Every structure is written in structure tokens, then in C-alpha cells.
Amino acid sequence: MKLTGYILLLAAALIALFGQSPALAGAGSHTFGPAIITIPDIP
């Protein structure tokens, strides 16, 4: 569970970083969006 929490923290950091830049936010919503959704499903 520690590893899952760490991955979610990294995902949150990526969201924060890409949210700062409009250009990256547009691309990030498509590239990182699905990845963040599937990460919690990994046991």
C-alpha cells in the first residue's frame, strides 16, 4: 500500500506540474489522464 500511495503522490505532482502550463495541460489531459485512472487499479 505504501508503493500505491507513493505512485498517487507522483501522479498528483504531475497533475500540478502540467496544470501550470496551458500547453502541457492540453497534452497532459490526454496522455497522463488515462494513466492516472489506471494506476490505482494495479494491485
From TrEMBL:
The alphabetized UniProt keywords are: Signal
| Signal sequence annotation | 1-25
Query: Is Signal tagged as a keyword?
Result: yes
Write down what this protein is called.
Uncharacterized protein
Q: Which organism is it from?
A: Roseovarius litorisediminis
